[in-house]
Design brief:
104 residues, mainly alpha, 4 helices, 0% strand, globular
């Protein structure tokens, strides 16, 4: 394994951790509002394949929940949330969904 392979492996591991962290938060929030949708999404997630509806809900959720906007107090609001979500995190989740055949 060369340096390029190791870098790609580390990048893949970071991406997987980001997706796992955000999916866990999304599922927890979904469970509070729609038990049936959460159950369907969790079953798909545990099997390694989100249903299309769940994938679209995740994409929309992560976009709406971006909390780290890089604004300072003079430029815009500080957004509170249960997890820190950066624009890069959002792009990671969208890329992950597209790689699994979902339209985002």
């Amino acid at each position: 394994m060369d340096d390029n392979d190791r870098q790609q492996t580390r990048a893949g591991d970071r991406e997987r951790r980001t997706v796992e962290r955000l999916v866990a938060a999304w599922l927890a929030e979904t469970e509070r509002h729609d038990h049936a949708a959460a159950r369907e999404a969790r079953t798909g997630w545990e099997r390694g394949s989100l249903p299309d509806r769940a994938a679209q809900d995740l994409a929309t959720w992560v976009t709406a929940r971006v909390t780290d906007t890089a604004f300072n107090e003079d430029e815009g609001p500080h957004i509170e949330g249960p997890v820190r979500i950066t624009p890069a995190d959002k792009e990671t989740v969208h890329r992950w969904l597209r790689a699994r055949g979902h339209t985002v």
